[in-house]
UniProtKB/TrEMBL annotation, chain A:
Keywords from the named record: Cell membrane, Coated pit, Endocytosis, Membrane, Protein transport, Transport
Pfam families: Adaptin_N, Alpha_adaptin_C, Alpha_adaptinC2
Subcellular location: Cell membrane; Membrane, Coated pit
Name used for this protein in its record: AP-2 complex subunit alpha
Amino acid composition bias (Low complexity), ranges on this chain: 649-667
Family annotation (InterPro entries): Adaptor_Complx_Large_Subunit (IPR050840), AP2_complex_asu (IPR017104), ARM-like (IPR011989), ARM-type_fold (IPR016024), Clathrin/coatomer_adapt-like_N (IPR002553), Clathrin_a-adaptin_app_sub_C (IPR003164), Clathrin_a/b/g-adaptin_app_Ig (IPR008152), Clathrin_app_Ig-like_sf (IPR013041)
Clathrin adaptor alpha/beta/gamma-adaptin appendage Ig-like subdomain domain span: 730-846
Family designation: Belongs to the adaptor complexes large subunit family.
Biological processes, Gene Ontology terms: clathrin-dependent endocytosis; intracellular protein transport
UniProt-recorded Gene Ontology molecular function terms: clathrin adaptor activity
From TrEMBL, chain B:
GO CC list: cytoplasm; endomembrane system
Family listed: Belongs to the adaptor complexes small subunit family.
Domain AP complex mu/sigma subunit positions: 1-136
Gene3D superfamilies documented for this protein: 3.30.450.60
Annotated source species: Gasterosteus aculeatus aculeatus
Function: Component of the adaptor protein complex 4 (AP-4). Adaptor protein complexes are vesicle coat components involved both in vesicle formation and cargo selection. They control the vesicular transport of proteins in different trafficking pathways. AP-4 forms a non clathrin-associated coat on vesicles departing the trans-Golgi network (TGN) and may be involved in the targeting of proteins from the trans-Golgi network (TGN) to the endosomal-lysosomal system.
Protein name: AP complex subunit sigma
Pfam families reported in the protein's UniProt record: Clat_adaptor_s
Length: 965, 139
């Protein structure tokens, strides 16, 4: 049945398409398309009214051109005209064009909605389906408003045709996803659930997608679907392959429906009702049994369909994680697939087994397949399969097989694909640390990592090995010896030089007794690498040298000689030059005692979560990596990041911080927005590294001072332009700069910046007249409690000039520090004489608690976990209010960003909603805050919900923000 | 759910594309080219599922034609893989060989997948509207 010969085929279109196909070059294609576009345009503009057929043909051509990747900016009206045609094909092309190309052009939407309304009430099932498809495809707010109440009725009505029900179910799903507030299921719930019992399998297939989505959102209301799904599943599974006629695919009864039923059940815990549960277990067993039966067909489609169900069943078994018998059977089944000749099956088996490995019931069973998995890692020809094998090895690793797995992963690294090397390195590093019984093995492993894949060893990894060596004195001598040996290789990676420099600088003395590694030999070895290294590494080495002078006074002359030479002391790099000069000076004037104190061995690092793990989590997203014990082990004391001054409130928040470290996570694993202070002249980086944690708040824009720390960019708010004058304090909640006040005489502009719990505000007083202001004074006061324990320093750095000349502007700077949270605003009082009359003004300064926000990026998973943790009623503040300003997405986004929080994408399942997260930094503590804003465009209302670790903050923020939108 | 479906030939020309989650036009061409490159670079013995950015590609090759879908994590890969075959079989049943007739291919696709969800898998029911249509036209 060649399509062109069909009665309704459009010859012009076929010719056009074949022209395009025959174009030899892209240019020729574009030329042909432009010609066609011009032709269509002229036809549409022409005087002659086009008949339906021509309209359809041209719209169809436009559609084809669009498909080729060209933007189409006309023809929408003609497409809308087609909607009212009585011919199916014309109507269909019209709807297709609109589904594919419509933008929310409100003018058209009204016309489209009208056509849809007519078709929905036409009672012609094919027309109804087209209209429903269109709503589902466009899914805009306007459509939801027009049809959301109508569709559930169509869906459950007794006289609706099956095909219409199918379309209605998916249409409703779309509307529910885009505008959940408009889709009110209440009275329909039970009838929708009962669609699972519909005798028509197509209806069930469509309805189950809807029910799954609804169950995820309202599990309790849809609970009854569990027993219905189980009985439906049981009927399918136990049926003979001939029972379901057309829904049988290569002898497998209703494979897609079965998968969806099994997926729906994964929204719920195991059924409580014994009978239902029994029936379900029976189904699962039958599915597992069928996998062992001889296939009913040799076709691969048969086994694929069967296995699709099997994998879904195994997912359900893993989800329940309560039936040891089934878990072990699932594991054995997957074990068979590991050696299957179909690559797809091997891939999926590795993937499923990865989740199985984390169940206590099947962990041991998974481990028995270690040899097969290692073999897969070595021999699979497909990188994505090898990747899964590596994931699985990582998941099945425990104390008993760690050495084997780490060794295999290391040897694989030598030939591994570049795309997965970095991740492999992280995994090896984590496993080596987690299961290190003796730390010499750990050190060996990490040094091997650097040797094999130095380029892929990120800072986190080598920072970590140094942290561990510093903290464990039993391994220091071994580490020094090993790193010394590693450095003797003729070509060694720069990361090795870094680790070597650091460790020998600290612990070189432990191996100095051996004449083969005497101090001078060590120094010469390090220095032989010096010239090949980058600036940061050289800086690190210089620090190591000064440490050598302390450890081995006999090297002093040699090292001073090196420091003194022109290439150091006159180095064009400021940092290197400074170090050389300072170290040289330090070594020549300081007494041995002073030197020993300044260059003392590094104190242990505080215990904290491995920054490597954080990095891996970030790479893979949470959930992808299951290493629960490691996390627990490190969570002692509730401090992950080792931030010494955090209050108890921050403990929970820091958990989410940990999974999203700043890109330049430093050796301390601490996110310090304020750059570290300049190196004290007497100390090298090795020391500064320690000091930097003790005194992180030194707010100086100094040059970053060492080779270990890379500076986190200061998180300043971008300066926004002065906006229109407005006295309202509220105007400044989401912005930092602007005109605070203006009358005929005076204009006050404001510019402010905040970092952590500190802020600086610049006030600009402009005299708008041509006459001098005399006795100009300003006072800032903190009413009531604000002074004593809320806002601490709010002082002008210098008093303002007493005279403001006509037309002149003077500036005043205020420094602000937030001690604890607050809700009042400080007052600014201004007095001056203008032509003899005393003017007195009082204004509220726009310092609000949200200014001390630091944004926190987090994943959906983390967000909701945190959200749940903050579930005490007083922690939440909620307000529903009418929109005062434009509800435009971009405007809202800009406001939310201005608020200081991180605006998180892909967290809220409803894309219309906004969620934000941030930490308010006060001197005493950090307050984690989560925000959710749900706009309702139709009602022009918002619902704002805040959850903070401190109740007063929730309330205050809610108050502030309700005025903003 | 299914995020998009593409039919692309070896030369990288898109024969059919359907997006179930909005993607800007400017980004489509790039995405399509990228996806094709990804599939073309793979050998026959490699597996049919590829991690791609934050979702997964499931693809099948029929001679010079690739059918590719992007799916979210929670989709059953094998069932999608077979869904593609089912779709191609339906096309095969309707057209004598794979032949391009844009509107009809779209009708068929719409009957099978709506909004990124499987809606009908029974071949004769998928084709019912078209068969009715052809009868009307012939009569």
């Amino acid at each position: 049945m060649p399509a062109v010969s069909k009665g309704d085929g459009m010859r012009g279109l076929a010719v056009f398409i074949s022209d395009i196909r025959n174009c030899k070059s892209k240019e020729a294609e574009i030329k042909r398309i432009n010609k066609e576009l011009a032709n269509i345009r002229s036809k549409f503009k022409g005087d002659k009214a086009l008949d339906g057929y021509s309209k359809k043909k041209y719209v169809c051509k436009l559609l084809f051109i669009f498909l080729l990747g060209h933007d189409i900016d006309f023809g929408h009206m003609e497409a809308v005209n087609l909607l009212s045609s009585n011919k199916y094909t014309e109507k269909q092309i019209g709807y297709l064009f609109i589904s594919v190309l419509v933008n929310s052009n409100s003018e058209l939407i009204r016309l489209i909605n009208n056509a849809i309304k007519n078709d929905l009430s036409s009672r012609n099932p094919t027309f109804m389906c087209l209209a429903l498809h269109c709503i589902a495809n466009v899914g805009s707010r306007e459509m939801a408003e027009a049809f959301a109440s109508e569709i559930p009725r169509i869906l459950v009505a007794g006289d609706t045709m099956d095909s219409v029900k199918q379309s209605a179910a998916l249409c409703l799903l779309r509307l529910y996803k885009t505008s959940p507030d408009l889709v009110l299921m209440g009275e329909w719930t039970s009838r929708v659930v009962h669609l699972l019992n519909d005798q028509h399998m197509g209806v069930v297939t469509a309805a189950i997608s809807l029910i799954t989505c609804l169950s995820q959102k309202n599990p309790d209301e849809f609970k009854t679907c569990v027993s219905l799904a189980v009985s439906r599943l049981s009927r399918i599974v136990s049926s003979a392959s001939t029972d379901l006629q057309d829904y049988t695919y290569y002898f497998v009864p209703a494979p897609w429906l079965s998968c969806k039923l099994l997926r729906l059940l994964q929204c719920y815990p195991p059924p409580e009702d014994g009978a239902v549960k029994g029936r379900l277990v029976e189904c699962l067993e039958t599915i597992l049994n069928k996998a062992q039966e001889p296939p009913k067909s040799k076709k691969v489609q048969h086994s694929n369909a069967k296995n699709a169900i099997l994998f879904e069943a195994i997912s359900l078994i893993i989800h329940y994680d309560s039936e040891p018998n089934l878990l072990v059977r699932a594991c054995n089944q997957l074990g068979q697939f590991l050696q299957h000749r179909e690559t797809n099956l091997r891939y999926l088996a590795l993937e499923s087994m990865c989740t199985l490995a984390s169940s206590e019931f099947s962990h041991e069973a998974v481990k028995t397949h270690i040899e097969t998995v290692i073999n897969a890692l070595k021999t699979e020809r497909d990188v994505s399969v090898r990747q899964r094998a590596a994931d699985l090895l990582y998941a099945m690793c425990d104390r008993s097989n760690a050495k084997q797995i780490v060794a295999e992963m290391l040897s694989y690294l030598e030939t591994a694909d570049y795309s997965i090397r970095e991740e492999m390195v992280l995994k090896v590093a984590i496993l080596a640390e987690k299961y290190a019984v003796d730390y010499s093995w750990y050190v060996d492993t990490i040094l091997n990592l650097i040797r094999i894949a130095g380029d892929y060893v990120s800072e986190e990894v080598w920072y970590r090995v140094i942290q561990i060596v510093i903290n464990r004195d039993d391994v220091q001598g071994y580490a020094a010896k090993t790193v010394f040996e590693a450095l003797q290789a003729p070509a060694c990676h720069e990361n090795m030089v870094k680790v070597g420099g650091y460790i020998l600088g600290e612990f070189g003395n432990l191996i100095a007794g051996d004449p083969r590694s005497s101090p001078l030999v060590q120094f010469n070895l390090l220095h032989s690498k010096f010239h090949l290294c980058s600036v940061p590494t050289r800086a690190l080495l210089l620090s190591a040298y000064i440490k050598f002078i302390n450890l081995f006074p006999e090297t002093k002359a040699t090292i001073q000689e090196v420091l003194r030479c022109d290439s150091q002391i006159r180095n064009s790099d400021v940092e290197l030059q400074q170090r050389a000069v300072e170290y040289l000076k330090l070594s020549s004037i300081a007494s041995t005692d002073v030197l020993a104190t300044v260059l003392e061995e590094m104190p242990p690092f505080p215990e904290r979560e491995s920054s490597i793990l954080a990095k891996l989590k970030k790479k893979k997203g949470p959930g992808a990596v299951s290493v629960p014990d490691l996390e627990d082990g490190k969570r002692e004391g509730g401090e992950l990041n080792g931030g010494g001054e955090r209050g108890p409130d921050s403990a929970a928040m820091s958990a989410s911080n940990a999974s999203t470290p700043s890109p330049s996570a430093d050796l301390l694993g601490m996110r310090s927005a304020a750059p570290m202070s300049a190196a004290p002249t007497s100390a090298g980086s090795l020391l500064v590294d320690v000091f930097s944690e003790a005194g992180p708040a030194a707010p100086s824009a100094a040059v970053n001072d060492d080779g270990f720390l890379s500076s986190a960019p200061p998180s300043e708010d971008p300066a926004t332009l002065l906006s229109e004058a407005d006295e309202l304090l509220n105007k400044f909640v989401c912005k930092n700069n602007g005109v605070l006040f203006e009358n005929q005489l005076l204009q006050i502009g404001i510019k402010s910046e905040y970092r952590q719990n500190l802020g600086r505000m610049y006030l600009f007083y402009g005299n708008k007249t041509s006459v001098q202001f005399a006795s100009f004074t300003t006072t800032v006061s903190c009413p009531g409690e604000l002074q004593s324990h809320i806002l601490s320093i709010l002082r002008a750095t210098k008093p303002v000039e007493p005279v403001v000349e006509g037309g002149a502007q003077i500036q005043q700077v205020l420094n602000i520090e937030c001690l604890t949270d607050f809700s009042e605003a400080p007052l600014l009082n201004i007095k001056f004489r203008y032509g003899g009359a005393l003017q007195n003004l009082s204004l509220k300064l726009p310092v609000t608690i949200n200014k001390f926000f630091q944004p926190t990026e987090m994943t959906s998973h983390d967000f909701f976990q945190r959200w749940k943790q903050l579930s005490q009623p007083q922690q939440e503040a909620q307000k529903i209010f009418k929109a005062n300003h434009s509800m435009d997405t971009e405007v809202l986004k800009a406001k939310l960003l201005g608020l200081g929080t991180a605006l998180l994408d892909d967290v809220d399942p409803n894309p219309e909603n906004y969620v934000c997260a941030g930490v308010i930094q006060t001197k005493g503590q950090q307050v984690g805050c989560l925000l959710r804003l749900e706009p309702n465009g139709q009602a022009q209302m918002y619902r704002l919900t805040l959850r903070c670790s401190k109740d007063s903050v929730s309330l205050r923020l809610c108050e502030l923000l309700a005025q903003q939108f | 759910m299914i995020r998009f479906m593409l039919m692309v030939n070896r030369q990288g020309q898109t024969r059919l594309s359907r997006y179930y989650q909005p993607v800007e036009l400017s980004r489509r061409a790039q995405l399509e080219a990228d996806v094709v490159r990804c599939c073309l670079s793979r050998r026959k013995d490699q597996c049919s599922f590829v991690d791609y950015k934050d979702f997964k590609l499931v693809y099948r090759q029929y001679a010079a034609l690739y059918v590719v879908v992007g799916v979210t994590d929670n989709e059953n890969e094998l069932s999608v893989y077979e869904l593609l075959h089912n779709f191609v079989e339906v096309l095969d049943k309707y057209f004598s060989r794979i032949m391009f007739n844009l509107d009809r291919v779209h009708i068929i696709l719409d009957e099978m997948i709506q909004n990124g969800h499987v809606v009908e898998t029974n071949k004769s029911r998928v084709l019912a509207p078209l068969t009715a249509l052809d009868k009307m036209a012939d009569g």
